[in-house]
Amino acid sequence: MNKLFVLGSINMDFLFTIDKLPSKGETIPGKAFSTLPGGKGANQAVAAAKQGAMTYMIGNVGDDTIGEELIEKLQSYHVKTDFIKQIKETPSGVACILLEGNDNRIITNAGANHIHEISDIEKILNDNATEKDILLMQLEIPLDIVEKAIKIAKAKGMQIVLNAAPMKELDEAILKNIDLLILNESETKALTNIDVDDTNIDEAFKIIDTLGPKTCIITLGENGSYYKEEDKIIYTKVYMSDIVDTTGAGDAFIGIFLASNMLNLNTETALKRATAGASMTIETMGAQNAIPTKIMIDAFLDREEN
Ligand code: RIB
């Protein structure tokens, strides 16, 4: 079976449900609080593993109890954790997530996510990856590591997928080597300067084409997603869902889409399953725990389509 290597962040999420954001100098009581595993990299790895894809997480946690718990959780979702390092005298990555109505606001502290040795990543990929495998990254780890990892993966002939979240300034050396770039609305705006919607999606794709990525997906939240490959654009509409917490929905989409591709489903089906999975993730508090398994998505689509 082909392998998915996810090089990215692993966080513990501290989720506060609030009525309204506090003003300057104000203290407010939260309505609810949960501590749940997250991190864009780890969430995407969990989403893929829950579909049955062979998924390896490459990342770092601190040498604290949070780090232990984050690794155990990933293992419970069948993500392979052999390439996760516990960094001494360093805290694990954390995220403070404020849930206000249907919106979330996230503040992260990178901790161990910012400590990477490119020689470790090179050894992992050289010893374990082949040209049939995928390297998936986000931007919650240092940009120079992303750039160097792309070079290593490229030399091995791997497929390179980048979810440019949170957006950073990306130069040509990165963009020209990306096989699949995945962006949301604000990331598309940062890259193309277009406030993207269904009327100007072509324009955004044209600009992205000139930057290098071979294929691109733009997700527009409740307005669905657009997939572009050569001259083909596929639109996928979202399924109705009762919003509890949108954290991790984008990550669910990415992991499920890639895993469905790896399991030889066609692009339309992979997009539909990814969209269903994201809609289902929104209905439960948290990220990794809320992402559905393959069987859950099968059942959801059966209900939706019959
Ligand atoms: O994409 C959602 C994730 O972003 C959260 O789980 C949080 O940890 C931040 O990394």
Supply the key terms:
globular; UDP-N-acetylmuramoyl-L-alanine:D-glutamate ligase; binds alpha-D-ribofuranose; 13 strands; 4-stranded mixed sheet; alpha/beta; 25% strand; 306 residues; 36% helix; 10 helices
Give your account of this protein's structure.
There is one protein chain. This protein is of the alpha/beta class. It has a single domain, classed as 3-Layer(aba) Sandwich (UDP-N-acetylmuramoyl-L-alanine:D-glutamate ligase), CATH 3.40.1190.20. 36% of the residues lie in helices and 25% in strands. The protein contains ten helices and 13 strands. The strands form two sheets. The chain has a nine-stranded mixed beta sheet, sandwiched between helices. The chain has a four-stranded mixed beta sheet with strand order 3-2-6-7. It is globular and about 50 Å long. The protein starts with a strand and ends with a helix. The mean pLDDT is 97. Alpha-D-ribofuranose binds next to strand 2, helix 1, strand 7 and helix 8.
Derived structural class: alpha/beta
Average pLDDT, all residues: 97
Order of helices and strands: EEEHEHEEEHEHEHEHHEEEHHH
Range of helix content: 25-40%
- CATH fourth-tier homologous superfamily: Ribokinase
Q: What kind of assembly state do the chains in view correspond to?
A: single chain
State the end-to-end CA separation: 32 Å
Q: How does CATH name the architecture?
A: 3-Layer(aba) Sandwich
Strand order of the largest sheet: 5-4-1-8-9-10-11-12-13
Bound molecules: alpha-D-ribofuranose
**Sequence stretches where pLDDT stays below 50 over 5 or more residues:** none
Q: What would you report as the Rg, rounded to the nearest angstrom? A: 18 Å
Overall number of strands: 13
CATH structural fold name: UDP-N-acetylmuramoyl-L-alanine:D-glutamate ligase
Specify the CATH class: Alpha Beta
What is the domain tally? 1
- The global form is globular
Instruction: Please state roughly what percent of the residues sit in beta strands, choosing from under 5%, 5-15%, 15-25%, 25-35%, 35-45% or over 45%.
Output: 15-25%
Largest β sheet strand count, sense and barrel closure: 9 strands, mixed
